[in-house]
Automatic annotation (TrEMBL):
Residue ranges of domain Mechanosensitive ion channel transmembrane helices 2/3 in the record: 150-190
Localization, UniProt: Cell membrane
Lineage summary: Bacteria, Thermotogati, Deinococcota, Deinococci, Deinococcales
Membrane topology listed for this record: Multi-pass membrane protein
Name listed for the protein in its UniProt record: Mechanosensitive ion channel family protein
Domain of life: Bacteria
Amino acid sequence: MTGDVNTSRLLGLDALWAALLDTWREVERALAAYGANALIALGLVLVYALVFRLASRAGQALVRRLVRPDAQATVGHLVRTVLRLTFGLLVVLSVGALFPGLSDWSRPVFRAYLLLLLLFVGWSVVSHLLRVEADRLDLDASLRLLARNLTRAVWVLLGVYLVSAQFGIDLLPILGGLGVVGLAVGFAAQDILANLISGVTLLLDRPFRIGDWIRTENHEGQVAGLTLRTTRLRTRDGEFVSIPNKDVAGAVVENLTAGGRLRLNIPLGVTYEGGVERARAVLLPVLQTFPGVLADPPPVVLVQELEESRVRLLLRFWIDAEGVASSPVTRMRVLEAARAALDAAGLAVAYPRLRVQLDPAPEMRAD
């Protein structure tokens, strides 16, 4: 062997150790230059946090004492936000004054603070106007949410643009680049965009509202929510189903509660021997006294079809909007009560019959 191998240099440990030493020297120089100021800044932050907590409690106490109960939540939120922005400004200005490199940002930070206060107060006014107009137009919860979210998105984008301008940042080229990227993403996410557009269409067209019972091609339930992507139903079994908006917008939707009352039609077959009038006389009192069946319009018993082995009757009656949720149970109980009444009257519920006539084979027939 000509010499020993330097394992540390081979594994790169010497270079790593040298990098660590250089980093430590930089940290030592930074601590020597700014260590005292960093400790003072940390102390200021803790003091401001304590003062903010005390001021927040005092402000909430004044709100509870001076503001009406119905407006305390809104005013309290306004006071907390103003205090957060104010103390945040004080922290930034105080810390910036301790470090020479940050002192030049004082004026832009102060202008951004004023803009944020103005935007927040403006949003409170806009939100109040939206709520007043929604009450005046009697908009449902989904449409209120759509209007509020869209307005908030525009307001936030406006705030980001104005605040960025205070620091010399031009967002227009960035937004242009994002537009190109958004176009590319749009082609890759056509289903998501289709659901978004369908959601907006459903919110504007309003074929149903929150709380309505609806029936689509494959689902039936109560509308629990409508977002920009899905329609959420709560079925009669207590299950929650999320349906893509494009499937709902492109399907036939039956609104069971929009008209208030709902008519139920229950077919029931009886024998020809019992007679239609006698069956009607037995079944009408059942419908007229059944819980949940409306007296106006009155229930009726009609002949739907004359079949080979039975007369198919149609029990037709109305229920109110509150009874739509339990309409399947009502249908089953009416059938049970109708069967019991027919049995008590000696009338039989018919079932399909098939008469088979067997002729003898030709070789078995008598000559």
